[in-house]
Design goal:
Elements (H helix, E strand, L loop, with lengths): L1 E4 L5 E5 L5 E5 L4 E6 L6 E6 L5 E6 L3 E6 L5 E6 L7 E4 L5 E5 L4 E6 L5 E6 L5 E6 L6 E5 L4 E5 L4 E6 L8 E7 L5 E7 L3 E5 L4 E6 L6 E7 L5 E8 L2 E8 L5 E8 L3 E6 L5 E6 L3 E6 L5 E6 L5 E6 L5 E6 L3 E6 L5 E6 L17 H9 L11
Antiparallel strand pairs: 1-2, 2-3, 3-4, 5-6, 6-7, 7-8, 9-10, 10-11, 11-12, 13-14, 14-15, 15-16, 17-18, 18-19, 19-20, 21-22, 22-23, 23-24, 25-26, 26-27, 27-28, 29-30, 30-31, 31-32
Length: about 375
């Protein structure tokens, strides 16, 4: 939650994960207006100096300008949502699914001519995506206490699973067991949850010693073990669980920064993790030693997934980029990025723009030949 005082001291504004802004009358001690309009989490609010206008920024990629007296939205300023929270390969290796701050998932065709399509249905940000081993279902986990089961061909949501014990559960990374009978999901403060998919019931919940964010989960190739990545800003931890009993059997500590993503090698001998420092790390499971480090993303590495043939690793992060790596050598093979607002716009030689404005356009996809004088 965020709060902001108006400069005249008469109004207190608050925003939270429910995508609304509440305006409070400080003197009366009551709410006098609720502002609706944002379609994702609101992370920032601020009053103008005259206390008559409120600005709000959201994960939906917009800044909204509100009239404080009437509660009406006066203006919407479009932005660009860059982050991706999770990715997964289809079993045939043709598609990548991704989820992020918006309420939709994106399907990427990574064959000869990369293309994209959207799946819509969540009420809040999509935190996790996972293809079933047979390719018939796509699971998604969201900020809205929903695990969606989708027909990826038709683009429709077939069923929704929810945590009925805690209606405010935030589901994060999600992963199918190799035989497709179990679905594991990380969560915020509600531990690792494993669901029996034929019965559509929750089998067990695994809690760490302290409340934490379990960002991602990954199965061993034989389906007997489940790895989870979590932690806090002070440090990350990788946990290994016995898949059927839910017993925590191993902790790999000492990850610099929060461990935000995890994937297992086909042999089961290595775990690859991503962190809040933008780095990828390869770990020996038996020894717990880190054997390789690669720079991957600007900002946090949000997700890692190994391709079905075991040769490639896909990563995504705060920079909105999907990188495809050679799993064994660590070489970068391919980069995927959704088109930004000014993608491929050539601003070479354009006049009337400051250097700061040009830098902003380049950050949003514009291109400029810096060797050409202007």
């Amino acid at each position: 939650m965020r709060v902001a005082w108006s400069p005249d001291g008469r109004t207190l504004a608050s925003c939270s994960f429910d995508r609304t802004i509440c305006l409070w009358d400080v003197k009366e001690g009551r709410s006098r207006a609720v502002l609706h309009g944002h379609t994702a989490v609101i992370y920032s609010i601020a009053f103008t100096s005259d206390s008559r206008t409120l600005l709000s920024g959201s994960d939906d990629g917009t800044v909204r300008v509100w009239d404080v007296d009437s509660g009406q939205c006066l203006r919407i300023i479009g932005g660009y949502v860059a982050s991706l929270y999770d990715i997964d390969w289809s079993p045939d290796g043709r598609f990548l699914a991704s989820g992020g701050p918006g309420t939709q998932m994106t399907l990427w065709d990574v064959t000869l001519a990369p293309s994209q399509s959207a799946l819509r249905g969540h009420r809040d940000s999509v935190q996790g995506v996972a293809w079933s081993p047979d390719g018939r279902l796509l699971a998604s986990a969201g900020h809205d206490n929903r695990i969606g089961l989708w027909d990826p061909t038709m683009g429709v949501c077939l069923e929704v699973l929810q945590d009925l014990d805690a209606v405010d559960t935030i589901f994060l990374g999600v992963a199918w067991s190799p035989d497709g009978r179990l679905l594991a999901c990380g969560s915020y403060l509600s531990g690792v949850q494993v669901w029996d998919m034929p019965a559509r019931t929750r089998r067990w919940v695994g809690q760490t010693q302290q409340p934490t964010r379990i960002r991602h989960v990954a199965w061993s190739p034989d389906g007997n073990w489940l790895a989870s990545a979590g932690g806090s800003r002070e440090g990350g931890e990788l946990f290994v669980w016995e898949a059927h009993s839910g017993e925590r059997v191993r902790t790999l500590a000492g990850h610099p920064g929060a461990a935000s993503a995890v994937a297992g090698s086909p042999s089961g001998e290595l775990l690859i993790s991503g962190g809040s420092d933008g780095m990828l790390r390869w770990w020996e499971v038996d020894s717990g030693h880190c054997v390789r480090v690669r720079k991957a993303h600007q900002g946090t590495v949000q997700a890692l997934k190994v391709s079905p043939d075991g040769t490639r690793l896909a990563s995504c992060g705060d920079d909105g980029v999907i990188n495809v790596w050679d799993l064994q050598s660590g070489d970068l093979l391919q980069v995927l990025r959704r088109d930004r607002p000014y993608e491929r716009l050539d601003i070479t030689g354009i006049r009337g723009l400051t250097q700061t404005q040009k830098a902003s356009l380049r950050a949003l996809g514009a291109i400029e030949d810096m060797s050409v004088g202007g």
